[in-house]
Amino acid sequence: MQQEEILVDVKNLVKYFPVKKGIIIQKKIADVKAVDDVSFSIRRGETMGLVGESGCGKTTVGRTILQLYRPTSGQVFFEGVDLAKLKEKQLRPIRRRMQMTFQDPYGSLNPRMSAGNIVGEPLIVHKMTKNRAEYREQVAELLMTVGLNPYMSDRFPHEFSGGQRQRIGVGRALAVRPSFIVCDEPISALDVSIQAQLINLLEQLQEQFGLTYLFIAHDLSVVRHISDRVTVMYLGKIAEITGRNELYENPLHPYTKALLSAVPIPDPVVESQRERIVLQGDVPSPLHPPSGCVFHPRCPIAIEECSQRKPELRLVSPDHWAACIRI
Amino acid sequence: MGKLLDVKDLATYFFTPEGVVKAVDGITYDLNEGETLGLVGESGCGKSVSALSVMRLIAKPGKIAAGEVIFNGQNLLELSDDEMRHVRGKDIAMIFQEPMTSLNPVLTIGTQLIEPLMLHLHMDKQAALNRAAELLEMVGIPEAKPRLADYPHQYSGGMRQRVMIAMGLSCNPKILIADEPTTALDVTIQAQILELIQRLNKELGTSVLIITHNLGVVARYADRVNVMYAGKIIERGSSRDIYKHPRHPYTLGLLASVPRLDESVKEKLIPIEGFPPDLIELPKGCSFMARCRYAIDRCATEIPPLMAVSEGHTSACWIWEKLGAEERG
Q1: Hey, are the CB atoms on A192 and B269 less than 8 Å from each other?
Q2: N or C: which end of chain B has fewer CB within 10 A?
């Protein structure tokens, strides 16, 4: 089965950000454990959803896969090659195959570059066009692909709406014909009626170009809609990985259950019958994560052992992994 | 249930160099005692401005151009600034969208919490501090007393929003206006805050006007819903009416464009094409017409008023009956 081919394989990925003290002589005093021993794989052609609350490390996972941050330890295999071992120069040709779209449609586009130049820059960087005419033609085609009019290519970012800017960001990612795109919260800054336009665009592009997505978001309804499988993260660790329907119909990890029950459904009849689990307290600081299972201080079913033993991410049922000793 | 707040033909305009922005363009609604009323719409539709107008917190170049806001038998728009100050925070309180920026960063939480208590309820400082600690515990901040001396940056986002709620409720207001109270917060914290607002609504009988773009939040918490588009209310009804039998193409569009958590089939979403209109140059007829799949000739020339669909359910669409027939068929 072609679907089973693994495109991205993340093994024991760790990314710590050092916290330093002192102005001239800097001393490392602690680590922010943004990503702490994370393993998962993404199959070719699928959309892997990555959800969690802010600060859980989901964006760091995306950036570390693309080697925008170099991992502290662990491996990231892309088409069988371990990217963590490669030098910058060796990485460059591979970077063409993997791209990213960013969360903030305002901050992620250079305000002094026209839409056409933003979308076309990767073509120049990777020397993908032979001459000016071909460049122009490709830029026009890219703009059309993402649903913008080629005559808009001379306009600057401030002349576009949020949704259109996000389209420019998608166009820039598509320019180098990647096989893998990390979509980091692509719709969270957009209005409801515009969100659907972008979701549909991403789905259509995936079909058209056979793309593989890592779709990072905190909105679980959107993730369920667009993903094939979903990874749930909490405080730098993976809580659960499974197919999207399995996750929503049969969540195993208590954090996943709470997260799902926190999302309101736009239907008052369904809402009145739903069970709600309201978690107490806030997400702890990744500077000092709790001992044992990082979720245990907020967990409604935690037992003594949870504060001592780190739960392994284990296969509970076919294609369903969870990291909880109470399952 | 009696009417607590009665807003009639309220219009708030912003006089900018580019022209007059009709942010709120003649809206009428009421809020009953003990009720939770939802106000839904996209950014720029005028939902926040309409709430700020009720509080008379519109700054220049904005101006409340017309209308009445009747509360307790008096028109708030006719009160002097001084009289209004006695209503604001005491009878009608508001919590804002951004808990990060709505608190003063150089004053302690305690100082900010006791201000309304001393001002409106004439408590002395000690009594006010005791009451402030009680309030913080009521909104779920443990060991509240020592934490009164903390500054806002020492609180997390969810806790700051709790402080805002505590402050809003400090004088037992009759109405609490919550403007996107959870937008900046994480899902699990969002649930905590909304459950808290609902609990206070039930226990203290405070009427709540909840303003949000999140259709799910409204479905879960509101009794009745107003849907706004381009400065006007375009549909109103009970939550059940709005979600099960929408009779305005915009409401229909909104519902079809959001993915639902309980939907298993990977169906295509149906987005609303195009963009909201420019509020400076509103079209002559229905402002949703340019994006509407059902538009007829009449929509271009006549602005549809709110028409009765059924008891308590109104829609500002010329062809609401057709939408109903389609649903049945």
Answers
A1: no
A2: C
